[in-house]
Design a protein that fits this description.
Elements (H helix, E strand, L loop, with lengths): L3 H13 L15 H22 L12 E3 L6 H17 L3 E6 L12 H17 L2 E11 L8 E10 L7 E9 L5 H10 L17 H6 L6 E7 L5 E2 L7 H7 L2 E7 L7 H10 L4 E7 L8 H10 L4 E6 L6 H16 L6 E5 L2 H13 L3 E6 L8 H10 L6 H9 L3 E10 L3 E10 L1 E3 L3 E5 L7 E4 L3 E3 L2 E3 L1 E3 L3 E5 L13 E3 L10 E10 L4 E2 L3 E6 L2 E10 L4 E2 L4 E8 L11 E6 L2 E11 L1 H17 L1
Parallel strand pairs: 1-2, 5-8, 5-9, 9-10, 10-12, 11-12
Antiparallel strand pairs: 2-4, 3-4, 6-7, 6-8, 13-14, 13-22, 14-21, 15-20, 16-17, 16-22, 18-19, 18-21, 23-28, 23-30, 24-27, 25-26, 25-29, 26-28, 29-30
Length: about 600
């Protein structure tokens, strides 16, 4: 476990012992080898000296953390602090964590009991002024000076009270091997009742009869877990409908329950690429360990650069030694050169707070939870983690996306009685309102069709305005459902969207049994687009082997698609797998010219 003081001391240490802080060698040139040797000797001497003195330096935190001592501020100072808090809440999209008892330079000096109470009281007044609540995350004593009285520092979460459905929404994709307990864990979290050991908790998550009969997820389902402004869990145990959960929550976690069985892998990949999850939760069964598709799911999340945390489930079924063996197995895999992750086992609430903060700051940190959906063991630690977990994007990035033209990805299509055609998906950019006129496409002929957005629902409750990054369902009235398909986009008519049948991508071949060459057919995933494509040519190479890179031209075999330059790409066919990004789009006219040349070459041969 990394405690607050240790993490601060390490971070502050980089600034104190950076390049230029030493006293050089009086202008004499020294070989790199001797400098390295002398540097090692110097470090050893310093370590020995520290061990002899057995004194820890004053603990530090990085200066950019919000540092506070709020004892009886003047009215002017109070207004200034309240304005600062309002700005921090906007930057954090409704959330901010404050450190009380920390100086501006990051030194953990702590406050006396009386000063701490006064500071928390002032912070509560500030929060009330800007329409927020505070939650004390953790409090601890610091040894700043042994002669003084006991001093404490505190970490406080400030969260905005929800207004007009402006809650913070994070999407978490749930991955893991079949029978690892993914759906059961989600059922326990969202329903508020423990499982009976035979899968009762997961029944509400299944969408099809065969899923209930087999107990295996084959489709993508969504479940929501809310947290109010005070950090308390809001789920179906106290709220009867999703609308009530949305109204009571300041923060919403949307779980995307994906399939674990290998034959549903294309559905799992579609969920990861299309729904743009902020984080991924890999569920591993304690009694089976890393088995089946676990490694594959971990690799997919890492290839798509989705931050991942791990939950070891079913700890009630096995002895402590078995659980520890599974955790050690995970740590070995995470530390391998291909992963380069730093595993962090969460065993108490303090660990959960530290894990949430470090997980968002560093992509290499991977928290590991060990819990049971039957006994409820350590379930609260996961809730603490999810409550504090901050968004990856700040408000500035959100605003920039909202300034762009509307672009909505079509991921699901439904026919609802008395409503008509309904599409579900994610708004990639812009703002979408009720009654807005958009164009949808491309069709098989490459055209875009006009339509009008009727009503909008977000998390199963009515919503008037949809903003960039949010997922929702849009009612399209009497629009013909047969004209729609997954992978289409709904965009503003001003955008003049470009489509392509052929495109070039810079790829790396992760695995292939033989060689990857012209004429190979693979299933390409780019965002919500999933279609079989043929390899037209490999620039500068005749063939590719595992681990090699190249720029490859692909051609869709069915119909044109709408793609974005720079979009992440993942392709597969059997055991063949590769990743990359879209480097160039070939317009339809160029596509036709290339096809004519290709046909002529075939006729000549």
């Amino acid at each position: 476990m990394v405690d607050l003081a240790e993490s601060g001391a390490v971070l502050a240490g980089h600034g104190r012992h950076g390049p230029g802080s030493g006293s050089g060698n009086n202008g004499k040139k020294t070989s790199k080898k001797s400098r390295t040797r002398r540097g090692k000797r110097g470090r050893r001497r310093r370590n020995k000296k520290n061990n002899r003195n057995n004194k820890t330096p004053p603990p530090y935190l990085p200066p950019e953390v919000a540092n506070l001592k709020l004892v009886n501020p003047t009215q002017y100072r109070f207004e200034h602090l309240a304005t600062q808090l309002k700005w921090r809440l906007q930057e954090g999209r409704g959330e901010a964590v404050y450190q009380i008892g920390v100086e501006d330079n990051g030194l953990l000096v702590g406050l006396t009991e009386a000063d701490m109470k006064a500071s928390l009281k002032t912070l509560k007044r500030m929060a009330e002024k800007v329409g927020a609540d505070i939650t004390l995350l953790r409090e601890r004593e610091v040894d700043y000076d042994s002669d003084r009285n006991t001093r404490k520092i505190a970490e406080v979460l400030v969260r905005k009270v929800p207004d007009d459905q402006q809650f913070l929404d994070l999407r978490v994709a749930v991955l893991g091997n079949v029978d690892s307990g993914k759906s059961t864990l989600l059922g326990v979290l969202t329903q508020g009742e423990l499982d009976n050991g035979r899968g009762r908790a997961r029944l509400n998550l299944f969408r099809h009869l065969h899923e209930i009969q087999t107990g295996r997820t084959s489709s993508i389902s969504f479940e929501i877990l809310g947290f109010n402004s005070k950090g308390e869990v809001v789920n179906y145990s106290e709220s009867r409908t999703a609308e009530e959960i949305c109204e009571s929550s300041s923060k919403m976690i949307t779980f995307i329950d994906l399939a674990g069985h290998h034959k549903y892998l294309k559905t799992t990949i579609f969920g990861l690429t299309s729904y743009c999850p902020d984080f991924a939760m890999l569920v591993v069964s304690a009694n089976t360990g890393i088995a089946g598709t676990t490694r594959e799911h971990l690799g997919l999340a890492m290839a798509l650069k989705v931050p991942i945390f791990i939950v070891v489930s079913k700890v009630d079924l096995c002895f402590r030694g078995t659980v520890e063996r599974t955790v050690r197995q995970l740590e070995r895999v995470l530390k391998q050169p291909g992963c380069n992750k730093v595993p962090m086992v969460v065993s108490n609430p303090d660990d959960a707070v530290t894990a949430a903060q470090q997980f968002a700051q560093s992509a290499c940190i991977t928290p590991i939870f060990t819990l049971s959906s039957v006994s409820g063991e350590s379930l609260d630690l996961l809730k603490v983690f999810l409550n504090i977990l901050p968004p990856l994007s700040n408000s500035k990035e959100q605003e920039e996306l909202m300034q762009q033209l509307t672009e909505f990805q079509v991921d699901e299509i439904y026919s609802v009685p008395d409503v008509g055609t309904v599409v579900g998906g994610t708004l990639y950019s812009g703002v979408c309102r009720e009654g807005e006129r958009l164009v949808v496409g491309p069709t098989d002929e490459g055209r875009f069709l006009r339509l009008k957005v009727g009503s909008i629902q977000r998390n199963r409750s009515a919503c008037r305005v949809l903003r960039a990054g949010q997922a929702a369902t849009l009612a399209l009235g009497n629009f013909d459902r047969s004209l729609l398909r997954k992978g289409m986009v709904m965009v503003s008519p001003k955008m003049n969207p470009t489509i392509c049948c052929q495109f070039e991508a810079a790829i790396v071949l992760l695995f292939h049994a033989k060689t990857f060459r012209r004429g190979s057919q693979v299933t390409v995933h780019v965002g919500n687009v999933r279609q079989t494509a043929t390899v037209e040519c490999l620039h500068g190479k005749d063939e590719l082997r595992t681990g090699e890179r190249a720029v490859v031209r692909f051609r869709f075999i069915k119909h044109p698609e709408y793609l974005r330059l720079g979009a992440k790409l993942l392709f597969r066919e059997g055991v063949t797998k590769g990743i990359g990004h879209v480097a160039r789009l070939l317009p339809p006219s160029q596509n036709q010219d290339q096809n004519q040349i290709h046909d002529q070459n075939l006729q000549e041969h």
